[in-house]
Design goal:
- This protein has about 180 residues and is mainly β.
- β6 and β7 form a beta hairpin.
- The protein folds into three domains: about 35 residues, no CATH class; about 50 residues, no CATH class; about 50 residues, no CATH class.
- The strands form six sheets. Strands 6-7-8-11 form a four-stranded antiparallel sheet, with no helix packed on it.
Length: about 180
């Protein structure tokens, strides 16, 4: 049986995946207008939470398997499989180990146009890429950036990172001596 919209009683449409990878179901009596960036018709949206995926890693605190999960806001994390939320007591139960998945940094062979130091390729947790100076940082106490402020956001497909294919482990080709 199809899900029914709690606002208007119409059936819900098919499952749609957003650019960030989250899934949702809209009311069939409503739609999203890309031009005005607003809902038209019934505005009910049901966000679908993905099930945690089991990882081949053990929890460093208790030894149970770790799972890859998402928060309701889409942040990624590795957490202990024994961790759960008790709705009655409104408290977490089980092992409290959580490792947040943030972006990744890869060194580039380019120099910063502002300070001359090396650039790095930073990929956010959502998959967006940017080039930034390796000296840049963030002072959490003062809530201010530190170091060089050079940042260049990249469009999708604009920069392809080096994907290892195993050839880097092969010995160099022998050179023939004349």
């Amino acid at each position: 049986m199809a899900d029914i919209c709690p606002k208007c009683g119409s059936p819900l449409g098919e499952v749609i995946e957003t650019k960030s990878g989250r899934q949702l179901q809209r009311c069939s009596a409503g739609s999203w207008n890309k031009d005005t960036k607003q809902n038209e018709g019934c505005d009910y949206v049901k966000w679908i939470m993905p099930e945690p995926k089991a990882l081949h890693e053990k929890c460093p605190k208790c030894g149970s398997p770790l799972v890859f999960a998402f928060t309701r806001f889409g942040k990624k994390m590795k957490k202990c499989s024994t961790n759960s939320w008790n709705k009655e007591t409104r408290k977490a139960e089980g092992c409290d180990y959580i490792e947040w998945i943030n972006g990744t940094t890869e060194e580039l062979q380019e120099d910063c146009p502002e300070c001359g130091k090396k650039l790095v390729l930073y990929t956010t947790a959502a998959g967006k890429k940017l080039k930034k100076c390796s000296t840049s940082g963030w002072d959490a106490a003062r809530r201010q950036p530190t170091g060089c402020t050079y940042v260049e956001w990249l469009k999708p497909g604009e920069y392809a990172a080096h994907v290892p294919n195993g050839e880097e482990f092969l010995p160099p080709e022998p050179t023939s001596a004349p």
